[in-house]
Each structure stands twice: as C-alpha cells, then as structure tokens.
Amino acid sequence: MFPVAIGLNHRSAPVEIREKMSFHPSQMQKALKELRDCPGILGAVILSTCNRTEIYAATTDVETGIRSIKGFFASHHGLEETILENYLYAHTLYDAVRHLYRVVSGLDSMVRGETQILGQVSTAYQQANDAGVTNKVINVLFQNALAVGKRVRTQTLIDQHPVSISYTAVELAKQQFGELQGKGILIMGAGEMSTLTAKYLVSAGATTVLVSNRSYEKAVLLAQECCGRAVRLDDVDQYLEEVDIVISATAAKRFVLMPERMQRIMEKRKNRPMLLIDIAVPRDIHPDVGRIPQITLFDIDDLRGVVDRHHQERELAAVQAEKIIDEEMDLFLKWHNSLFVIPTILALQEKGEQIRDLQVKRALEHLSGLTPKQEKAIRSMANSIVNHLLHLPIVNLKEYANTSQGHLYTEILQNLFDLDVNEAGTRPSLIVKKSQEQGFHRRAE
C-alpha cells in the first residue's frame, strides 16, 4: 500500500476556491465514507482548515487512487475537474509522508511553526477513526506524524517565538508581570488589532479585561467576546488609575495619551508601575510618556523589532525541524518497505521450496533402490542449490529495503518470479510489533 496526498492550500489557491473546497464538520463522517468507497482507496483522512483542504489516502494503485480523489473532490463540491487541476497538488509515496510531517510541524503553514495545525491534524485523524475509514498504513502514518509535530515543537521551540503584533504585545505583558490572571488590563480601541489582542489575552489567562472605544456599542461587543467589561471613553481616566496594563489600538489621528495627562494619573496611582503598549498607527501614546518614572512604553516599532527577531528564530528552528523530519522519514521508510520485503521474501522462499520438492519427487521416481543415505544426500543437494540461488536476491532485497526504492525492487522481484504475495499475512504484523518495541510507533494501533 502506498500513501498519497492530494489537496490545495493558501499558496496554491485563492480564498474563494479554498472556501468552496472546505468540508463542514457536520459533513465529515458522510464524506469520509464516500471517499473510502472510491476505487483504489483503502484508508483515508480529510484535513480541512481555513488555509488548506487535503486528502491523505492509502492505495495499492497510485494512479487509480489519485484519479479517485480528484473525482471525489470535484463531485463533492460541484466543481469541474479541469478547474480544480489549476489549484490541486499531488504528493505520492514518501513525498506524501514528508508533506504531512511538514504540515503537522507547522513548516507548511502561512505562519511558520504555528501550533494550531497540530490539533487540526489530530482532529482530522480522529474523525477518520470514528468513521472507520483508516487502515494500518494510515494509522501508522498519522500516529507518527502527530508525534513528529510534538517532537519538532519540543526540541526546536519553533512555536515559542510570537510573530504577530497582537500576540507579541501580550507576550510582552506576560514578561513584565508574569501571570496575567488578576492583573487589570485596559484595551483602548475595538478594531481588528484590539480583537486579536483580546483573544490572546484571554488565552494567556487574563480575567480582568476592560474595553474602551469611541463607539461604546463596539466596546460592548468586544467586551462580550473576551468576557470583559466595556467602559465609556469619558470615564477612562479613573480606570487608568487602576489597571496595570494598557494596550492601545484606536483609529485616532492624534495622540490619545499625552505626558501631562499620564503624569497626573501616575500621581494618583502613587507611582505604581504601569505597562503601556501602543500598537496603533498613527501612534496613540506620545513617546514622552515613556520618560515618566514607573511607566514602561512600547510602540509598534518596538514590537516589530521583536517580531523580526522571532521570525529569524523560527527560520533557524525550521532548519532544525527539517533535520528531525529527515530522521523520522528514515524510520517510516524502513517500516513501510518492510511491509513489502518480508512477505516477498517469504513468497520467494516458499516458491523455491515448492520447486525443490517437485523436482526431488520427480528425480526419486526415476531412481529406484536408493538407500536412505543416498536419498538424504539428494534432498540435501536440492535444498542447498535452492538456498544458494535465493541467498543473494534475499540479501540484496533486505539492503534495498532501507532505501527509498525498496518497494520498487520488491515489485520487480515479485514480477520476475511471478510470486503470489500475501501482504496481509501474519509475518508483517510481527514486523510492526517489532517496530513498536523499538519505539517507532508512539501509540498502539
């Protein structure tokens, strides 16, 4: 069985195509079962996110499997295959495995190293399991892919370097105060940046979030999203006297917080430390506010500098992640080729034994009066001839099994000797068990 991956993402297709190609969670079980019934598909997983829609499948015939998946995409979403061809990409065999490993590690994401994709892949695999459409190859592939994604993040820390302005603002607040739970936080503005910031604040554990905006109605809506409280702009000074952190992202054309105003506020605060983060363009907070004792001020350029450094850190981490994926690819390659090699070796040995037994029987029928010792010598000679003839093909096939061409050499040998190979026999399952004992599988099938 061979893995294949067919799909599109944020690089290959515009958002209007990605929207049409997405699978709603309520449709997933039905879609998975329809896909499983397509010609050549023995196991499958559908991964559908806002930035990608991909089908991973196991097939015994790559060309048939790819045609089935493309046809399924077209029929399920009511699109012409000729149109889809402009946006779809196809990865086969070990390229498909490497692609999934890179996807789950965040290396193929719009934001390199993002964490959300790990959970999305896990959910997609669980949905396929629930629908009963996975098989041994899909199970091993996805169980190990999820382990690869976790290993990459643990060893490279690729997701520990925030690369969005809003997220970085929250991280700066955490660095300044530690835990955000119990800290008073005021968000000034209710636009997109403020909304993202509010979301990150809640994820970081903030429990006391105030929202102020020129439009009080918008402030109320944003406050509801982050379980906070809206405050009127005219009353904001009294809250500035109380909060620990201010994150400002208004659409004002002039400075909102001036030094004189903040000086008065700090006197009423009795100089209790305060963190101001200005992510507005143009700026909301006059730069001289940062000169006031006990006030720490970061503006958009400060945050962009941090983001740029974090981008560099993620790129370095990505290089390390690719090395980890190379190591994991070698493990998968050896396991996958063993599925072909061991049954083929067994079939070759069995065919040799059948030929040996048949020829020995014919020879003994033409030879009469042989002593038991002579008969034993004939059988031993026939057995030795077969073993010597098969020795090099078997040794070489085992060596090829550790290369990316192992399955091809195996197929050639099967065709040359016209072997009847039972891939679902008991011996391959022993190989899987051995791999599990060696730590290749992170979770039992």
From TrEMBL:
Reaction(s) the record says it catalyses: (S)-4-amino-5-oxopentanoate + tRNA(Glu) + NADP(+) = L-glutamyl-tRNA(Glu) + NADPH + H(+)
Keywords for the protein's UniProt record, in alphabetical order: NADP, Oxidoreductase, Porphyrin biosynthesis
Residue ranges constituting the Tetrapyrrole biosynthesis glutamyl-tRNA reductase dimerisation domain according to the UniProt record: 320-419
Signal peptide start and end residues: none
Broad enzyme group: oxidoreductase
Binding locations of substrate: 49-52, 109, 114-116, 120
Active site: 50 (nucleophile)
Residues at which NADP(+) binds: 189-194
GO biological process: protoporphyrinogen IX biosynthetic process from glutamate
Sites annotated Important for activity: 99
Residue stretches making up the Quinate/shikimate 5-dehydrogenase/glutamyl-tRNA reductase domain: 171-306
Domain Glutamyl-tRNA reductase N-terminal, residue spans: 6-156
EC number: 1.2.1.70
GO MF entries: glutamyl-tRNA reductase activity; NADP binding
Record keyword Transmembrane helix present: no
Pathway(s) the chain acts in: Porphyrin-containing compound metabolism; protoporphyrin-IX biosynthesis; 5-aminolevulinate from L-glutamyl-tRNA(Glu): step 1/2
Highest taxon above the source species: Bacteria
Function: Catalyzes the NADPH-dependent reduction of glutamyl-tRNA(Glu) to glutamate 1-semialdehyde (GSA).
PANTHER family, alphabetized: GLUTAMYL-TRNA REDUCTASE
Miscellaneous comment text of the record: During catalysis, the active site Cys acts as a nucleophile attacking the alpha-carbonyl group of tRNA-bound glutamate with the formation of a thioester intermediate between enzyme and glutamate, and the concomitant release of tRNA(Glu). The thioester intermediate is finally reduced by direct hydride transfer from NADPH, to form the product GSA.
Comment text on domains: Possesses an unusual extended V-shaped dimeric structure with each monomer consisting of three distinct domains arranged along a curved 'spinal' alpha-helix. The N-terminal catalytic domain specifically recognizes the glutamate moiety of the substrate. The second domain is the NADPH-binding domain, and the third C-terminal domain is responsible for dimerization.
Record family assignment: Belongs to the glutamyl-tRNA reductase family.
Record's subunit section: Homodimer.
Descriptive protein name: Glutamyl-tRNA reductase
Organismal lineage: Bacteria, Bacillati, Bacillota, Clostridia, Eubacteriales
Gene expressing this chain: hemA
